[in-house]
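Hi,

I'm pasting everything inline rather than attaching a file, because the server keeps stripping attachments. The sequence lines come first, and each chain or strand is labelled.
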Amino acid sequence: MSRGARDRAATARRWDEAWPDALAAWGSHLRLAGPNLIGKVNRPSGIRSFAWFDLRAVRVSIALDLATNLGLAELPTEILAHEIGHHVLSPGDLGTAARVLARMQMGLVDRDDLAPVMANLWSDLLINDRLQRRAGLRMDEVWRRIGPPHRDDTVMRLVMRADELLWSLPTGSLAGPDVPGRPVEREAQLLARAVRAYADDPVGGAAGFGALVRQLVGDPEDMRLDAIRLLVCHQEQGGGAVPAGLATDPSLAAPAVHPSLDPRVLPGARAADDPEHAGTAATPTQAGVRTLDRPHGLEPAAYAALLGRLGLVSDPARAAASWYRENAGPHLVPFPSTLRPVHPDPLLGGLTDWDVGEDLGQIDWPGSLVRSPVPIPGVTLQQREHLTDVGIEPDREPVDLDLYLDSSGSIPDPRRTRSPLALAGAIMALSALRAGARVQATTWSGPDQVAGTDGFTENADEVLAAVVAYFGGSTAFPLERLVATHLDSTGEPRRRHIAVVSDSGINSMFLERGTPTPGAAQCLAAAGAGGSLILNVPVNTRGRYAEMAGDYDVYTVATWEDLVPFARAFAARVWDLDRTEHDR
Amino acid sequence: MTHSTWQRPDPASTVPGPSLPDLMHDLAATPPDVWDPDIDTLALWADTVSDVAHGEFDVEAVLELATGPRSAGLGVIAALLHGPALRPWTGWWEAARLTSVAQRMVGTLAAHVPPSAWVADARSREEAARLFLDLLGLRPAGESATVAADRLTAMSSPALAAALAELAQEQRRAAELAARLAEKRAREAAARTTYV
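And the predicted assembly:
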């Protein structure tokens, strides 16, 4: 074995031996799989950091060659304990990582390209302070070995100076000499206080740190992002399910409070929502949508950016579908159903042989073991037969939903801004799917601008993709598709409810060149389970549309606040329909 | 008379004193009697000066501190001067110097950090202990004069308050500007939306 190989083996052994001490820095009961110590040859491509943690595999990885090059080979406990901190303190799990990132985006405003690195840096600050202060580890020595930041790297100078203040170290011992004209003292004082104030709340302090950083960095060319990436550890989190609650959590979309205005950081500070400054935090009005008073979660575009940065969803349309699915959840309504004469009663049959190739779940184990304690397919293994008997109780069959969504230019793009109309459509569709119905969703704008599901489907992803699709063109309701679905179909389909989500463009459903056309009314009669028009129109014009719509029920949904009354009115209507049918 | 301005410590003006943890321990162990509103703080101060210093003190200069809302601060530093950490320095100071110390501690520091925090909050306790030592012409044992002055500067609440107020004001202006810009962008976006 060469001398180099012997040195590498000794280093790896030293790091392995340091693992119990690193775990003990976070408590005596912590258990975690041992570190993944990686050499130069098997280091994953694209990772330039010497250490990283994987939130999905819950595993710490160390690139020993890079750590050695940085002079950190003699500090294994500090480095390993730091990486463990990412699993224990900040972020801990993918949901918290997403929340920290969302708040960081909010604080960085237009420099949200820095959000992933800054989120990691914020976590590093909290972890290092905890380890230095409570566990007695030499985190300052780690920074000393790495060396002072570049004089142009204002963010790292800020972090280093804050650590000097937190750990009572002489000025310049970590941050290096002050740079004339670019002082960070005030900000570092604030950051040091913020680190202590939010020591156990990484999400709460992330936006403030982002706001502090935003004040110090200008355009991208002012900041050496590459230099920061080399110094901070890396967070590996790609793939996995989207954490629940990100789209609806109002705290994630709350305005960022700069630490100098944060009473948690400076007890005497006046909060940003101080009545004296209330005007500065007002939400700007959006095109075509009134300002919403109730606190709300992230906008669909910000949500999509967040999921993209987390490596969970790269397609904005899929992210928007996920956003509307989550926001529709609390508003789901009962959906119409229709009575079927009788419901067949299940009846247990006898036992028959179960053989290889049949569904494993069908094996009746008690029956098989009674026959023989030795399970042999085709000989001793048994399955239960199920028969049906003519029942006497009537059954309920869900009504299918034929949904039409206006995506003309007068409707805001639901993938970018929160659209109450698209949410109303999502509520209808998901309520129908929940009831076991099938849904046909059609997105329409001008002539030849029609997209949607391929007929009726039970696939929620396909339906939501149609809900968030957007053309932004002219307005021409696809009457021919409505007619083809309800008047030209053969066979005996299930009863269907027709729902149209639109605005004043609904005229094109009932009028052709200014002349009333009977197509929509004929389709309603053929569908057999009623129709709903969900319109973004002023409430006082509802009567006019109701008159034009004939037997269609008309609901107005112009703002987020209208969704609950809409859901309530729709549920009451379904209740009435069901009672009428029952009486019949 | 109170001193409302903060002065940067002079590293050359201090000599080694007690250890910082010992002095902070004495602060944390301040007798609860000092918070009693009925206590005669002026009499307590007079007794303290006669116990640990030499010379006469200016009653008029201390009267305001002893009767104001932050008079408990005078009780806290009287307790400190009697504490075990500073006992080796008993008789080391002039009464006039202690009056000046009281004015700076109660007049300046207490305006930013209430005396109750000197005892209860770890960070404030360190700040109070460091400032107190510096005003007495001492520095924490084991620290060089430069390091002690640097730490005191870094921790000084009065010094920081002015800088942070300025920062907060800048931030408010930036937030107002951002809100105006966002509103303008929203108006422009509304104008661009097509109604067809």
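The CA atoms of residues 102 and 192 of chain B lie 66 Å apart.

If the labels don't parse on your end, tell me and I'll reformat.
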